[in-house]
Amino acid sequence: MSRNKGGRPPKNQGQKIKQAHIRLTEDQHKQLLDLENQIGVNRTDLFIKRVLENQDYIVTQDVIVQLAKVGAEMGKIGSNINQLAKHANTVIKNQPLSPAVVGAFNSLLELHIAHEADLYKVLRQMYRVMKK
User: Which residues contact 102 (CB under 8 A, 6 or more apart)?
Assistant: First the structure.
């Protein structure tokens, strides 16, 4: 019978146990604190991403907030498109479809496609950063 080789990993594997200290002027320290608050990333992660991993672009809270806004807007537009499509399918059974309904549908669909393109652009940028 073989013993189970699984279990707890060796201690300190993957843990951050070493420290690096730097000296800053008062102005530099204030800039660092402002950057830390603005980006929403702690100092350690900020140094690791910017210095060790050479990332110019950090996925921050404001990026996530913007993605949430775009996603919510896309959901609203999609709901409106579905309502218009249902109305058009109901009306078309009894009478010809109104040009106003077709125009509203086309404008909402164009807006939806534009938002979708913006979202894909941001997601591709995030993917490139996370891939490094």
Answer: 88
Q: What is the pLDDT along the chain (132 residues), one digit of tens a residue?
A: 567 677 776 777 777 788 888 899 999 999 888 888 877 778 888 888 778 777 766 666 677 777 788 888 888 888 888 888 888 888 888 888 778 878 888 888 888 888 888 888 877 877 776 665
Task: Determine the structural domain holding residue 116 and report its residue range.
Answer: 59-132
68 and 132 co-located in one domain: yes
Residue count of the chain, please give it. 132
CA pair distance 125, 68, nearest whole angstrom: 16
The amino acid occupying position 34 is D
- What the block records as the tokens of 124 is 């591709």
Give the C-alpha separation, 83 to 25, whole Å.
60
